[in-house]
Amino acid sequence: MQALLRDTLATGAHPLLTLDDGPIRDQLVTHLEEQVTWFNQPVAASVITTVIERTELDEGVRRLREEMFGRADARFGDALAAAVARGEFRPEVVEHARELLAQAVGPLLFQRFMLGVRLDKDMVANS
What we know:
Layout: H1 2-12, H2 24-39, H3 42-54, H4 59-70, H5 72-85, H6 97-114, H7 121-126
């Protein structure tokens, strides 16, 4: 039963923030627009809620949470470092990757899952 739950969650899970080495703002907006599409799916709330709840009890779900959310700040930090190398940002921005990510994604998560707002691309541009 646990394996079936983990497999089902893994199928519905989407890693947060996978960027390549292009201009970071364009990529971030594009990726967040894709996330918004997933956040608006009925299954998204169930997957996120189940992952949060089951993480305390199941090591497999804990690993899934880490895959979905836990590595996002490291991936974002890598993307920021590449952007610094390209001259897009000052070097000190890299040390604030987690906070910057929370400021970009947090309001979208809150609006969707706490307030029940259907998200759209304009909300991404304004976040």
